Amino acid sequence: MGAESSVISRDRSSLKISKTSSKWSRHLISRWQERALHMRLLGVVRHAERADGVDTFFEGDRWVNSEDFRRWQLDPPLSDAGQVQAAELGEHIQQFASRKGGQV
Q: What does the angle CA 34 – CA 40 – CA 45 come to, to the nearest 5 degrees?
């Protein structure tokens, strides 16, 4: 009989712990659900038009004719058109962020 009562006693104490932790868990979950969320926007842009493309210009001439090409053949900059594309994309991202209430 003594063994049975200790089992019941242990079961009741673990039940109390279980109820307490369950109540605490519900409290934490409700606080987590009520928190204010700040919107974060993430975008990835590979690149705009590069200066080493066919029919592209860098500073008004072919990139292969430039000093930049002689120094960094494997690292082409943006072409003239690519610089315009990048600027337009930057403006577009700024406008999008403003409409969504964010900032860049």
A: 160
